[in-house]
Amino acid sequence: MNTNFKLLEIEFDYNGQHQVITPVLLQDEHERILVDCGYPGFIPHLEKALGRYGIGLESITQIIATHHDMDHIGSMAELKRKFPHIHIITHELEKPYLEGKRKSLRLEQAESSLEEIPPEAKPYAEQFIRFLQSIETAEVDRTVSGGDTLPWCGGIEIVHTPGHMPGHISLYLPAGKTLIAADAVVIEDAKLAIANPQYTLDLEEAVRSVRRLLEYDIEQLVCYHGGLFQGDVRQSLHELLRTYPIDGTSAQV
Description:
This is MBL fold metallo-hydrolase. It comes from Paenibacillus oceani. This protein is an alpha/beta fold and 253 residues long. 26% of the residues lie in helices and 25% in strands. It has 2 domains: 4-100 and 137-242, 4-Layer Sandwich (Metallo-beta-lactamase, Chain A); 104-136. The protein starts with a strand and ends in an 11-residue tail after the last helix.
């Protein structure tokens, strides 16, 4: 079977800061699967990134949403509107948030922080809240849970990696010993790190999810923030775990 993955590195400015995100394209003979899709209005960015490989956005057949943060699902509703044939897949815990049946956990977090921040920071926080409120919802076509395997690209194993959000998932492709981490880990200064630990909804659970990654034989690790990790994956995961205590003890593995 011809399996492949391509990194869709997207560079852009957001609130005056230069940022890079890395959605992933998975493909085989029959399917083209987009893993996460950027902020609202990112269709032109996705088209440009796919165009570097000679691929049109209209050929996408599935979108896997790893979780409902704005930079991962912001363009999902627009993509579904423009290309109704695309199926949206997410963890069962994420479905009500993607469909707008429950308030975004990130929005709840931002709203609850309003009383704690200094007055000079409130205008930015209120602007951020309005932005979160503007994220469009989209119907989910299929839900998955940890341990499920999607039947494409030689099998895509769903790895439930909660912490950053309760329904956060990573994807493991045994055919290429590749793990798509989403925000389970990020790359900072050439090392693996917890994504925005101050905003992670459950830090201890996030650290346990990092430990769970050690159960997999990973030769290639892709982070949404940082791209393809260059280095010894297992060693770097061990180093990360040593920096975070769990239940008051050192996170030795």
